[in-house]
Amino acid sequence: MKATWSPPIRYIVLVILLILIAGLIYYTRVLLGPLVIAALLAYLLAPIVEFFVEKLRFNRKFAVPFVYIVFLASLASIPAIFTPILVNQLETIGNEILKILEFLRETLPGIHFLGYTLFDYDIPTDIQALITPLLEPQQIFGVFLAATENIAWILVIIVSSYYFLMDSSRLRTWFFAIFPYQYQEDITILYYQIKDVWQAYLRGQLLLMFIVGVTTWLLMMVIGLPNALLVGIIAGALDLIPSLGPTVAMIIAGIIALVVGSTYLPLSNFWFTVLVIGVFSGIQFFENVWLRPRILGHRLRLHPALVFVAIIGALVLAGVLIALVIVPIIRTVEILGRYALNRIMGTDPWPSPPIVPAIDSENVETTTVDKN
Fold first, then answer.
1. pTM of the prediction?
2. Is residue 299 within 8 Å of residue 201, measured between CB atoms?
């Protein structure tokens, strides 16, 4: 006769395991964002890999490295293309900044009130005076530390996404095998429900990127910003990253406006830059307050207010990486919590037989899981 644990022992062991898992998640929480991003990147590249494997008959061991090398080369080409352009414009931008400061000093002269000086502009005579404070050792060391940390996270994302692509089926099989056999059916159903959530999230993000890119392109073209199409593409691509991405796109557009000006509006470069920044701010306000909550809330079946508060809260409390994935994480936790509550209450978590892909395959064929 096999020995079995009594109910109190089971509950004690379960509580201990949950505490250990929670502690592990807490101490490795900084890894969650990069790992989720790596999983999303692997998911985006997976259809391309499958095309090479299924249509072109590539061996997966060659298809994954080939697709990944092409992808990384494409990413590397972006700064290689734009860096020379930006370097050539640095001197012009510096001169424009000096002109703006001179304009401000002439327009808003120093005002003395109760012993305080307002609008007292100390304008350096050359660009070197502007740059010198940035070259102090503590500033350079701080930039070096920040760059090193970012490079480390980028390496984590790149390496992890590569192995997710290469070993996705084995990782899935290993994950299912962790659980007792009688629960593997439930785990399979949960897996595909959660997978649907993340697919819906990615489709929503792609739709947002498209809308923001097209809207930015059209509005920049209307006000006469040179290279409006390129700015729209950049704005759409960077819209994936909350807060940081739109800010970078706005800075790029502002630099173009400051250096080149409008193609037809009778505005100085300074005021045209103000107009461009205002238009960008309006687009982002509309997207963050109304468009993003509506689209993601509809696709993930969450209230738009919850989506808005979750993203803003994640930006403030946890940073950009967590804000990027907080919405699908909330929906995932909801699915897992509902399942756990049904099991605790002794009710069926699947009131109607769910339809999921066959357990041993992710092909188009589906099977109805009979829970009775």
1. 0.69
2. yes
